[in-house]
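Supplementary Data S3. Sequence and structure tokens for construct A.
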Amino acid sequence: MKEEEIRKRTQETAKKLFGGGVKMDPPYLMWKEFDRGLANDFSMFITGNLYSRTVLTLPERQMAACAMLAAIRAGDELRLHVNAALNVGCDPGKLAEIFFQVATYAGMPAVNEALSIYREVLKERGEWPIEGR
């Protein structure tokens, strides 16, 4: 695939994931401060090559990312990806369920942190409380 195609896919996918909701700077902006070329390479690989694949849908990828980030207690990244998950149509109730599932593998402190971050994002988006709860 040509670099221009990957760049276009990167931009399209990033817009879907990070184009709305909570206002926050993506890690890409920090990466660029250190090494613009490497930041572009990372971005094109992660967003243009991996996230744009069609084996999993964007909502499925985001649910997996949220579960993993909750389990490793990566709060800042989780905040970014919870917002992205909502942007691409993940069901809010299912995201909450995913965070409860994390208890089996990472314990209740990880669940509590994830739910706290999730609630903050929902509030900032004006989507709290979750309907039907």
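Construct B, processed identically:
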Amino acid sequence: MSTETTASVSTHILDTSIGRPAEGVAITLSARSGFDAEWAVLGGSATDADGRCKDLPALPEGTTHVRLDFETEAYFSKKQAEAQQDAPRVRDSGAFFPEVAITFAVKPGEHYHVPLLLNPFGYSVYRGS
């Protein structure tokens, strides 16, 4: 929830390699108040079965920049292990990007939904609605 003095953030992840939400990806939310300010870790959560993270911490008043850190290596390691149960190992498809850090600017009173489209060898993000 945002107020006139704070911004708010939400995210979700779609694993484009399987066309499904990415469940169980740990996410850490950090914020700072100014380009040269130190980052403050506000907390984190993990994606649910729909790939959504509905309980990220609120941003403090004065936040100007936000960083979302997605821990992708553990997610892809688990997916690879599940896929290997019934099939021989064909290739090492561990995460090329073991983590994804997305940093963006925010303005008070606005909501920022930042979806992550993810696969083992690439990703893209955008400001959603």
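Residues 72-84 form the longest helix (13 residues). The helical segments are 72-84.
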